[in-house]
Design brief:
homodimer; Quinone Oxidoreductase, Chain A, domain 1; 2 domains; seven-stranded mixed sheet; six-stranded parallel sheet; 10 helices; globular; zinc (chains A, B); zinc ion binding (chains A, B); ADH-like_C (chains A, B)
Amino acid sequence: MSSNQTERKFEGWAAMDENAVKGGMKWTEYEPKEFAEDDVELEIQYCGICGSDLHTMSNGWGTTKGMYPQVVGHEIVGKVVRVGKDVKHLKEGDVAGVGAQCDSCLECVNCKNGEENYCSKGLTGTYGGKFSRTSAGSKSYGGYANYWRGPAHFTVLIPEGVDPAEAAPMMCGGTTVFTPLKQYGAGTTAKDVGIVGIGGLGHFAVLFAAAMGANVTAISHSHKKDEDAKKLGAKQVIVTGDDTKAAFKGHERSLDLIIVSSNAPDMPFDAYLSLLRPHGHLVIVGVAEEGSLPNVHPFNLIMSNVHISGSAIGSVKGMEECLKFAGDNNIKAWVKRYPMKEANEAVKSMNEGEARYRYVLVNEEHGGKLNA
Amino acid sequence: MSSNQTERKFEGWAAMDENAVKGGMKWTEYEPKEFAEDDVELEIQYCGICGSDLHTMSNGWGTTKGMYPQVVGHEIVGKVVRVGKDVKHLKEGDVAGVGAQCDSCLECVNCKNGEENYCSKGLTGTYGGKFSRTSAGSKSYGGYANYWRGPAHFTVLIPEGVDPAEAAPMMCGGTTVFTPLKQYGAGTTAKDVGIVGIGGLGHFAVLFAAAMGANVTAISHSHKKDEDAKKLGAKQVIVTGDDTKAAFKGHERSLDLIIVSSNAPDMPFDAYLSLLRPHGHLVIVGVAEEGSLPNVHPFNLIMSNVHISGSAIGSVKGMEECLKFAGDNNIKAWVKRYPMKEANEAVKSMNEGEARYRYVLVNEEHGGKLNA
């Protein structure tokens, strides 16, 4: 046993190849990073299933090759069971969460400004990454597992008043949409907000934007989710069908902000831009596996002074704010819980688009609860 | 003689077809819009030659078909010689200018907010457009001509302290770059500003951004304009050559704002985005004739929270602010003057890329001066 191992045996659902996404993960032991004095260890109680997990297992973004085996999962909540000497904000017994990022340089201007998610040296993903600050070269492993070990800087306390099972999917999915909604003034400077794609991220975006006081328009490909969108807080739903331009007739220049959470290929961005008022923003948070932005005619940017941008997950502060907002506003995420041992079934169902709208894996032996 | 004609005979250089851009315009009489009580008439003293004039004459943007003959020119300065009853801010004898827009609905929320350039009903271009508010259906004719007639709302007083010959190219080219530099905080929130393309618009962008106190980086395809860029106020020049990515090594995340004034096709937008700090803006003001945005990978937007947008000319207020700024800061546009009768030679030279950096046509018989 090497010096960096405690008595804990780290085990998780490992993707050995691209078939994992179809329900082919294997329960496997793995070696975590060396414990550093600014690290913590969690007994994982909950781990959300995020779209990125699937894209990673399938190598759909082309980023996974040579990085198998992978233990994915970056919406982790658990009990703090080990705390390094340098950790100030957490103690044993706390319930804490980790999102999609587990490390960065902590020294560059962006890290210093509290935007570790835009670290100039790049960020270490909670899975599929390599540590470079401590335990340099070690692979990072995620939360479809029994334990998690990593930098406490990226581990936040789950506030009272938020069900930790619902907090889990907020660590990535929730924060990813909360952050741009806040950045672009949903409910304040951006009164009219469109949410494209009613899936895991989109359902959070509708919930949050409505709670921020925005007039929310859900934009969906089919009528399947009309009722859900309204229950989540959307005031109207635009169904695009196969003729987006026709569907948007009469809605031109009616929105201040659009969050694109869909990752469908061939998104008709020019049509979406037509929905924006001058100075409006279209913010991409979902990435299609095919991956590149369909042509947008510059005249469509120029003639309305509209903006296309993207937003990456959230900072540590962003996660804390998201959780606090959810608690203060009694946000109820639509979560279905699966026992950790049924992770393959859950992944398969998620991959087939059945989630309404987020799945969370539960370790009952660590205190996770299968029922709310 | 119809009731809408005064004794003035309107004549100008007309593009009869796509060959005009090679120096084939014909001096021709034409009928202006019917005079309305909120119109003015100018004796044209100066008219700048704008890149848009060339794109329009050549039908390079595909917008001109069926709209010949065209009298282009939308950087017009002249003496007010007729004033409708409803005009308050101008009187006979004033020296006034018109930019690229000569009409809009004046009623929509954008017009009311002083952003006529984003009018919800569309704008009437100073040439190649059709009036719809007064004299509905009449074609608009520009400033390669002896007179101009149109709505006073879009006609601004040229302030003392700005040479009217230099004011002319500020009516479109200058204002087009001044507006986004101001909108995105050049010299204040955007300390480090990149200007892509050192041409007519780019030369104004460098002049203005430097005067606003920004640290300006000129980005150019070749070394040809290095010295000029520095004389205009750039602190450094990046020459891209044919390997933009290589040229940008070491400059990643060094700029807050990039104005793309170049209209070269196949712009490597992904590479430009790498120059932006998180929250930075890339603003397109030039449009290639080939016309559509090269693919940008969404990850490059997402991972730095950077923005692509466009900006269209300027509002009436924007033109006034631009002229005032130029006067207050003693901005000297680099202008070469041609007699109006040599318009074909000037257009041909401009089309061949010889301008350093703006040409202005001069009507000496109306008081325009061929020498500064």
